[in-house]
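Task card 7
Instruction: Convert sequence to structure tokens.
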Amino acid sequence: MAAPDSTRLPPLAAAAVDRAAEERATPGLIDAARADAAARVLVIAGDSAPLSTPSALSWVAPAAVPDGAEWAFLGRADDGTPLLTAVFAAQEDELFAAPAGWAGLRAVGGSLGQADAGAFVEALSLGRWLIDAPFCPACGALTMLGDAGWSRRCPSCARQHFPRTDPAVIVAITSAEDPDILLLGSNALWGANRFSCFAGFVEAGESLEGAVRREVAEESGIDVASIEYRGSQAWPYPRSLMLGFLATAADDAAARADGEEIAAVRWFTRDEIGAGLAGEGDIVLPGRASIAHRLIRDWHAGES
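Output:
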């Protein structure tokens, strides 16, 4: 597998926040940061965050955060300012008014600057675990947070737990015969005109290459002749690390939908993909926040 171009990372892949992981074991770190008037907090409610503009997050002071949040240390800004997240379960109403309202990562992740995009995906990925996994999976006891929100310890069986990340492959398929066509699939749960790359979770004991070959064959009927790694990004829906690949079909004519997860597969011309990326034509392509968008866009631009 070839290495990806490090200058062309997917939108949520940049290491834009200094996580200062070495500080997490510092006693009282969260309390000290919350007492710091200069600290900035990214509030998460469900999968949404407040916006200051349509393309920038609204960070607030610790004192402005409503009661009842789960807190965690995200890291430090370039000037050393502590960055925190305060996480709430999904709310029917907005927790507080934001200058540009509230939005989810899918909707705005591709429009944010690197620092905000990195903070949002970090906070949301960690926040889902903070909200969804309060109990010990081994004995069922209520756990206690540690490491500034990055671990849980069970007071009953003494086990320590960490946020879970599930690797998944996502693959755009190029033609064995024509460099100007790309194979995409339409999930059975989507509208008939929505298409994306093929994706699936890596199974136990499976390599990434093996997962690519298996998922592509299962969903599209295609055996791949070559595989090229193109980059990765976190995708907290629910807790994935998406690993992007470009694969070349061994036989274009073998393409067919599995009829279960994938309702349709289709070879698209470069012009059709260009129209879809521009929001024109008869197909809907993935949003800018996703690595699928980057895989498709790079292929269209001849940069894959």
